[in-house]
Amino acid sequence: MRQRSNISQSFKKAANTLAAIGLVLWVLGGSELSAQSRQMLSASAVSGAYRPAMAGVPQYLHYNGRHAAAPAGLPPAIYRAVAAANELQGKPYKWGGGHRVLYDRGYDCSGSVSYVLFKAGLIRGPMTSREFRSIGRPGPGRWLNLYVSGDHVFVSICGLRFDTSDYGSNRGDGPKWRPTARKFPGFEIRHLPGL
């Protein structure tokens, strides 16, 4: 009887795993995993803190290694935010960039997040990383999360991080999509209502 119970539990675990894989395939919009999808999946597994948690809603951006695209069924502000972040790909890191003028040659962390949120229609102008500590509400949102400390800010949109530095280093190397996790002790997670 005990052996039968163990077999039953094994089948349940296998069924749950298959269901999870099916959900991921549905979210990614295909029946086979491409190399980029596998990269996104492994990034999402590593950086689960960036992943929004809302069942039955498209949650992951499509990412080709340089630009991202939002799946159907998301709020218009998310599409605008993703498009704005794509515009900044390849721009260099520039301390204070994006603060005096929104359209700059380079951007720092808060300048790039300001650009993305402004173009999405979510803020009125550039903000400093400290000012982002009072935007929105504490805690994670459905699709867009801000990670704010006293001297750095980055955003996660549908599980994909947009940041000016990699792996938590203090050296900025320009705003871009980053499919890897980074250290964020000391960061507060904030969200904008409805997102």
TrEMBL record:
**Which GO terms are recorded in the biological process aspect for this UniProt protein?**
proteolysis
Q: Keywords on this record?
A: Hydrolase, Protease, Thiol protease
Please report the stretch or stretches of sequence annotated as the NlpC/P60 domain: 75-195
Gene3D superfamilies recorded? endopeptidase domain like (from Nostoc punctiforme) (3.90.1720.10)
**PROSITE patterns from the xrefs?**
NLPC_P60 (PS51935)
Q: Which InterPro entries match?
A: NLP_P60_dom, Papain-like_cys_pep_sf
**Keyword Ribosomal protein among UniProt keywords:** no
A Gene Ontology molecular function term for this protein is: cysteine-type peptidase activity
Family note? Belongs to the peptidase C40 family.
Write the protein's name: NlpC/P60 family protein
Q: Which organism is it from?
A: Roseimicrobium gellanilyticum
